[in-house]
Amino acid sequence: MPSITKVGRVLVPVKNQDEAIRFYTETLGFALTADVPFGEGDRWVEVSPPEGTAAVALVPPQGEYAPGRMTGIGLVSPDPKAAHAELKEKGVDVDEQVMGGDGVVPLLFFFRDMDGNQLLVAEGE
């Protein structure tokens, strides 16, 4: 069996890494955890939520792996309604309504970053 132990990072294609850094750090409150030269003139950039164990790598587009996609990333908030209101107030493209909360599906909503990449926020600890 392979010795794979956890999810370390997920990749999100972005048009401009500096703009993405600003969005993920200033708007979402993530920390910049890596910004180093990579390959031939590229950069490896990672941001992480305050209590997360996985990072989000903000990478340049490559072929069909382009901005404006469903990322499959599910972020956690103890209060999705408050997170939704805060992001909406900051001008983030959020779903109109928070969904779920019926005892089966947790409270959740989707939002899009500055490149149209879609992420989920769901209730949790």
- Which series of helices and strands comes N to C? EHEEEEHEEE
Distance between the amino and carboxyl termini:
31 Å
Number of strands: 8
Strand content: 35-45%
Number of domains: 1
The name of the CATH topology is 2,3-Dihydroxybiphenyl 1,2-Dioxygenase, domain 1
Strand order across the biggest sheet? 1-4-3-2
Please identify the oligomeric state: single chain
Query: Architecture, CATH level 2?
Result: Roll
Major beta sheet summary:
4 strands, mixed
The class by helix and strand makeup works out as: alpha/beta
Characterize the overall form.
globular
CATH class, please?
Alpha Beta
Superfamily (CATH H level) name: 2,3-Dihydroxybiphenyl 1,2-Dioxygenase, domain 1
**Count of alpha and pi helical runs:** 2
Radius of gyration (CA) equals 15 Å
Instruction: Estimate percent helicity.
Output: 10-25%
Would you tell me the overall average pLDDT? 95
Low-confidence stretches: none
Features:
alpha/beta, 4-stranded mixed beta sheet, 8 strands, 37% strand
SSE blueprint and pairings:
Layout (H helix, E strand, L loop, with lengths): L8 E5 L3 H11 L3 E8 L3 E7 L6 E5 L10 E8 L2 H10 L3 E2 L13 E5 L5 E6 L2
Parallel strand pairs: 1-4, 5-8
Antiparallel strand pairs: 2-3, 3-4, 6-7, 7-8
Structure write-up:
The chain is an alpha/beta fold and 125 residues long. It has a single domain, classed as 2,3-Dihydroxybiphenyl 1,2-Dioxygenase, domain 1 (Roll). It contains 2 helices and 8 strands, in the order E-H-E-E-E-E-H-E-E-E. A 4-stranded mixed β-sheet has the order 1-4-3-2, covered by helices on one side. It is globular and about 50 Å long.
